[in-house]
Structures are given as structure tokens and as C-alpha cells.
Amino acid sequence: MSRLKKLAQGLGLLAALGLAACSSNSAQSALEPAISTCSPTNSTLQFFIGTANIAGVAGLNTLVTLRQNTGGSCNAGTSLLDDAPTITGPAAFRVPATADAGTDAGTNKISGNILTSLVSPPPVTTFNPAGANPGLASAYGFLPSVQANSQVGPSFSPYPLPFYYTGAATQLAYIGGPPAFVPPADSAGVHTSTRDGFFPNGYLGYVLGFVDFQAAPVVGSYGLSVVIPTGLNTQTGASSYATQTASATLASAVRLAAWAVGPTFVSDGKGGGTITTNFAGGAGLTEEYIEAVDAGPGTTSPACVTGPQSVTYPIYYTFKIAPGAANVAVPDNIGVAQPGKTQGHTFCTSADNGGTGGDSVVVYGFAVDYSLFSSAFPQSNGNPAPTVTLNAGQADVTTSPATTTGVE
Asked: How many whole angstroms separate alpha carbon 295 and alpha carbon 245?
């Protein structure tokens, strides 16, 4: 299986990163080849809303899935490559006046726009940040886009969260890595990570879907509209668009239990250690996760990765645990390695790094009251509308601050 096809599965992109409105030929004897097209509107939009408890601060949480259906040459379960989402909240909902809000500040909209002109770009908004590519509704969550030549698609890296953040700590990236999120085995063998040399460089792991905003949640109906480019009239140069819509109701602004103190990691000096969650859990929680990010010792590439591939920092590990207080064992040897090769240390020790000190490990956690794991990739590969089971009718999340520890 090619790297691009693996990436299409992992990010929910159209196979081979082709255009959203794609075509394919099938040979017919003595006839012009037939054309089978995939309309970008042949897709299913799902939208879920909930509260966010951002280390004790109130916020709004969202989850979107926008995926191609079967039919024509569509690749079921994959993402559109270009669209513009806008969330409209109840009349009393207000976007705070932060730098990343743009002209959304003071309104009840979290908006994006299709970029149609480099000369006259759309106004700066949440999903149209100044000097950066616009955001889109992807196969799993809102993502920034990337542009390569004339093609646009979801970025490998999700947004640092939350949006509209104010506070002393930094925003965090939520990326699914081993041992919880592992690519399925294929002709290359049994994979241990998306960093094992069989995926494109820069693909750090699986998108975890939720996108939260540090804006006070207001009960009521939230609407999502997604503008989708559908084609170009080659005679007039005019573009055409379609709009898909969905809505979700925030019935309660009561948040999940606060995760006020971040998890802590203690190294065992052998490449692993123990993470203490520092979180008692609370009512309604169904899934809990710990992110352990190997930030390295300050060098570009890890010294303890099994060759021959070269891997750059950061390296994400994700542990799925039962909700509540726990001590999580981090194995010593689940480091990046190609299929069939022995895995090295999870985190490089000082000895691995030539006696200059071990890697730096950043740990943080989050917990939800909906079925994140089964609706995420790779579990939902090929599914145009993954089932999202809501424990209390909402997609709520609670997130912790981060702590940083050095490896011995």
C-alpha cells in the first residue's frame, strides 16, 4: 500500500489526495472511455456540540464529521479537500475578543470563508486566520488546510487548542499515537506507529476530532453550515458552490469534572516510567486519555529510534484508560521502528543521548462523555457516518494542563 493511500485512510482524505470532484476512466472497446465522477456534495455531514472544561475554565466543545459517501468514483469515508465551515450559536452566545477571533469577536458566529481571490482575501475570522491557510470541516474535526501548488487539503497537524485561549499555559495539540492509535496491518507488515517510515513525513498521528473554544457555553441550538466548491465554469470562469447544514443542541451548560492539575511522569531510567493522572474523574465520563509527547533533548532526531528511518521530534504516545484516578505504566520499549524490527526505548535516556541528558516528556490528559475511540481513525476507516454515541446527549470534554519532566 502506498504512503499516500495510508495517509488517505489516516486523515480521511480522498485517495491519493486527488481533487474533491474527481473522475476516472474505464476502457470500453471502440468507444470513448466512460467517465465516473464523484460529486463533493455526495457526502454526509454530522455535527455535535458540548461543553468544554479547560483545566477549570468554561468553554464550548465541537465535533464534526464530513465524509464522502459511496457512489460514482467516491471513496467512502474520506474527507473533502476544500470547504468553509461556519458555526452559528444562540443569540446570547458571544465569541470573545481574542487575537484568533478576528471579526468573529463579539458575534455569535465562528466562521470561515472560501478563498476566491489572492488580491481580495476574505475578512480575518476564526477559520480564516491572518497570514495562514483557511480552516475546513474534515472527516474528523475542524482542521487547518494546506495548499501545494493548485491543490488544497486538510493539514497533517490539527489546531493547537483551545481557540480563544487566554492564560499562562500554552495551547496543546491532541494527536493519537501508540499504543491506543495504531495503523492497521497491511502488506508492509504490522505497524507500530504512523512514524515507522511508511507514512509521509510530518504525519505525526491520528486526529482526535474534538475542537474546543474558550468561550462561555450558552444553552440552545447551534447550526453548522459548510460551503463546498462544486466546480468551475471553464467558459465564464465562475465557480459554483453548494451548502450542507447540520445542527446540534446544547441542553446543559453543566461541565464535566475539572482536570485542574496536570498528569505527572516519573522516569524509570530505562526508557519508560509511570504517569500519575492526578484526576479523580467524575460523573458521565466514558473515555479518558493521556498524551505523552517526547519533545526530545533539543536535537532534531532521536538517538534511540531503530534504523534505518530517521524520525524527528515530537513523537506522540496516547494511552486510553478507564475514567478516573490511575497510575499508567509507560513501557520501556515501544519506540518508533519499521515493521518487523525491534522497537527501541520509548523515550531516549541520557545514555542513549551520549550522556547529555534524557529526552523531555510533556504529559497532559483529556476525558469525554461520548464514543471518541470508535468514531476516530483508524477505527472508522471507510465509514461515511461513524456512530457517535453521546452519554448525555452532548459531546463534552474536560482537558488538563500540561507538565514537563526529563528522562533519566
From this structure: 40
Q: Is residue 24 part of a domain?
A: no
Flag whether 26 is in a domain: no
> Do the Cβ atoms of 221 and 55 come closer than 8 Å?
no
Record the pTM: 0.90
Tell me: the pLDDT tens digits for 188-239? 889 999 999 888 878 999 999 999 999 999 999 999 999 999 887 777 777 8
The total of structural domains in the chain comes to 1
Burial class (CB in 10 A: 0-12, 13-18, 19+), 301: exposed
Low-confidence spans in the chain with pLDDT less than 50 = 1-9, 13-35
Q: How many CA atoms lie within 13 A of 171 on its CB side?
A: 15
Residue 25 lies in a domain: no
For residue 109, give the C-alpha cell. 458566529
Structural domain range at position 50: 3-19+37-406
Compute the C-alpha angle 64/65/70, nearest 5°: 160
How far CA 318 is from CA of 159, 197, 281, in Å, comes to: 17, 19, 18
Task: Please report whether residue 209 resides in a domain.
Answer: yes
Spatial CA neighbour of 136 closest among 189, 84, 192: 84
Residues 6+ away with beta carbon under 8 Å from 399: 52, 53, 54, 55, 161, 162, 172, 212, 259, 364, 365, 366
Q: CA-to-CA distance for 79 and 263, rounded, in angstroms?
A: 34
Q: b/e per residue, 11-22, with b = 16+ CB within 10 A?
A: bbbbbebbbbbb
